[in-house]
């Protein structure tokens, strides 16, 4: 495991900074208009492309997801079941880094709504649901028509 990869685990939860992670990995981030996704990893150019107009929380979640594609050495050429598995794995690993169990336990003691909890954890509601499903050991449903990641 590389030193950069190890540091991602040390700084989990609210302290995890995907922006710092892309810097450590030497990955460029390009912001542009995207039609049907919030982000993509372009392995051939070593760039993460993210949609313009995202909130800071959305961008944090998208970058965390795309970083997981980088770390897993996904080349972006997968399709079908393989692509679905790669997307699920990137979501789960990103959610684990973005939402530390200690942070989740702290927020769960007082937050009475998933929207409030997600806001406090600096993640999207979708990413919080990914983390909760992961902790519950639930099988993931087939991907919906939701836009992008995050």
What does this structure look like?
This protein has 7 helices and 3 strands, in the order ααβββααααα. By secondary structure, the chain is mainly alpha-helical. It has a 3-stranded mixed beta sheet with strand order 1-3-2, covered by helices on one side. Strand 2 and strand 3 form a beta hairpin. Helix 3 crosses helix 4 (80-98). Mean pLDDT is 85; it is low at 1-9 and 142-147.
Could you provide a short overview of the structure?
With 150 residues, the protein is mostly helical. The protein has helices spanning 3-10, 18-25, 56-71, 80-98, 101-108, 114-121, 125-136; strands at 28-32, 39-42, 47-51.
Helix content: 40-55%
- Overall mean pLDDT: 85
Low-confidence stretches: 1-9, 142-147
Number of strands: 3
* Total helical segments: 7
Range of strand content? 5-15%
Which descriptor suits the 3D outline?
globular
Structural class based on helices, strands and sheet pairing: mainly alpha
Largest sheet: 3 strands, mixed
Rg (CA only): 15 Å
Distance between the termini: 26 Å
Task: Write down the secondary-structure element order.
Answer: HHEEEHHHHH
Sheet with most strands: strand arrangement: 1-3-2
């Amino acid at each position: 495991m590389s030193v950069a990869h190890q540091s991602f685990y040390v700084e989990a939860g609210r302290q995890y900074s995907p922006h710092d992670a892309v810097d450590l990995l030497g990955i460029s981030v390009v912001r542009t208009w995207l039609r049907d996704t919030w982000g993509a990893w372009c392995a051939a150019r070593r760039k993460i492309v993210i949609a313009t107009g995202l909130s800071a929380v959305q961008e944090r979640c998208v970058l965390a997801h795309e970083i997981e594609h980088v770390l897993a050495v996904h080349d972006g050429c997968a399709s079908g079941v393989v692509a679905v598995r790669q997307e699920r794995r990137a979501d789960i690993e990103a959610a684990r880094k973005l939402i530390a169990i200690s942070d989740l336990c702290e927020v769960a003691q007082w937050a009475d709504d998933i929207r409030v909890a997600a806001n406090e954890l600096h993640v999207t509601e979708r990413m919080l649901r990914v983390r909760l499903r992961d902790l519950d050991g639930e099988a993931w449903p087939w991907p919906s028509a939701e836009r992008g990641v995050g």
